[in-house]
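Worked example 2:
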Amino acid sequence: MNMNMNAAESQPLCLHVRMAIVFINILPPNSIYPLRFFDSHPLMNLPTLLQLISSAFQRCRASEHLCRLSITLRLSNPSNVQISISDTGIGSCLDEFLDLKLCLEDFGSEYWDGVLSVTTTSISDDEIHNYRLSTKECVSERRLTRLPSKPKNGGKFSGTEVCLLVSKNPDVLVGEIKCFLQKMLILKIPSVAIELVVEREDTPGSKDEYIFLANECNPLPFSASNLERLKSGLEEYVLKHGNILNTQCRSCFPSSGTLKVGSGISSQTKSRRSTGLVMEAVIIISEIIDQTSTCFRPCSARTEVLYFKDYSSCTISQSSLKALRSIDWRSYGLILGSVENRGSSVLLEWENLPAYAHIDIVLHLYNEQYPTSCHTIIVMVPSTRPKIQLDSNLTKKALKLALDDLRDKHAGVLLSAHALKIRSYAPDLAKTIAGLILSSEDTDFQTECFSLLGLESQGVGGETVEACINEKIISVIETNDKKPQRSKDVAPFLFEDDGGFLESGLEYDEYEDDIILTGSDPTQLDRFVTTLHREFSIRDLGPLHYFLGIEVTCTSGQLHLSQQKYINDILSTTNMLDSKPAPTPGKVGKPLSQHDGMLLEDPTEYRRIVGSLQYVTMKRPNIAFAVNCACQFMHSPTSSHLLAVKRILRYLRGTSSHGITLQAADTFHLSAFTDADWASSLDDRRSMGGYCVFLGESLVSWSSAKQKVVSRSSTESEFQALANVAAELSWYHRLFADRRLILSSSPIM
């Protein structure tokens, strides 16, 4: 429930005091609280104040008892706001504040001094601990100042209070907090009662109080699953117009039956590397009966996607955003116009949504091992390892299951455009079939048809038969539309007995491919794209500028290909973004050997970096030799080999914008250059060979690799290199002949 009341007219949830630790949680003495670390916690994406509120919410949720979360804003003067966030959950771990990177930009350095006052205690503590935290202090050891503690005198309770002083418009703060808490109610955590209090010291006795109870209107048992709570929470969110109202809006929703709800859940298989992620999705389609309603949340063609991670509202992940874009919405009768990422929310705009309908979507991603009891304390530690993007298939599968669930539960909902078109012909077809049956002089045929339709053979009117056949046809269309595309080869029978038919139960996945289309006639290209669009779900991204990590810059008669973003991602992942650039990709002197250096304990990082560098060689021939040398030791890399790889990264650090340029030429001829380094390998004495092939003045092919056999002389190694480049030129010659392209002269080596 969300309401505004005066303190004199209502009683608070419990005795309002300055410290949350008055609310008692009784647990066995000397309880142990193991720490569990989670990388890349969703709170890192929230503004500072909302991070602190969400942390308090998590402490309450992790408790085994009913808890209270109180947020108090005291307005001492028009410019200063004292904020107190207190909870009666499990005690706070100091690492939660030491390692949490707070964003000063949320308030601005001139609006907040960066100081937090923290008071906390756990069940097993004998004292109430007081701390002063300076978030502006760069040295972590100096950020925390321990203040005198207070004895608990044998009391068994827990709680935390965080205080800060800011200079910001209080109405803006209250609006942000209310919006955040209204979204948090969707999770419908029954054990947490939330109170927002605004006190104005310049007006004695003036106090606004807002109370948020998640399990008040349609209470669920404590044993309800997360998905059941998410469904019920989103239903109330819609019926109360974003939880702004205290009760259901009766003018827009006379009954909750006007909502069409679908849900889906997908999970990641547990393994030694993965503890198992769970993605829950709930989709609600609401239809406003009263079109003259003046409610402040009217129907619109936009859908705000609400995203939660580990029981906290946060910004949507890039992988989930990609999943939203990649879903074939047309197969569900929806045309997605645009996806707007606003940081705190994502808006989907539909092109064909009726004016009276609205779609609401909520996603919740959490780990199966995320703490749910008071025996685990949440510690948010920024990850020092490379951030791993979540698999978008997890989000995509949950959303598709929710869409399928909607279509299964509600007939005629989310039919594809193709099915809607076919269904429009159903009345005429039913009328024709009914006429054939009724006009037949074969009594046995009529009796059998009436029996299959479930009708009496005597005294049946034409309209009844027609309506029954029309219903059967629509049922067949809807049933067939629910199947995967590849299983629609055979439609079910129009007339069938009660036993029905068996579905194949085939599982399917969708894949997304990127394609480059080139041609000299723009009209033919547009026609070809239109043809593809009719057969497949595609998106035309316009002129080529970025493709599979390759950046394309088009100028007059030239194409410059580079991989600057991809290279910077590698440097960032390997913490080499601030390294000193190297003048060359490798050292001149003694070649690498398998006996150099000490074996790496974990070769995974080496192999991952070298694998990424192999992709860079697609547009950087100047590192092909160095990368090939590094690839020769993938089976047992050493410390010396890792240093050589870091040398390549340092070279790329200074030349990340380099690439190759393809340019048009008046002449159409092939030329090639080749060389060999005789017996350069210290391990097997094989030679290194390399070549580069030019089409006109454009470099189109190159290679640097160890020769397959040992050469007994430098001349023999040179001839092997010539043979390799001759084979490459021969391949190009045949390719041009197949395309009926004539070279202006014979290839030159």
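Residues 1-45, 371-389, 486-509 have pLDDT under 50 and may be disordered. DSSP finds 17 helices and 24 strands in the chain.
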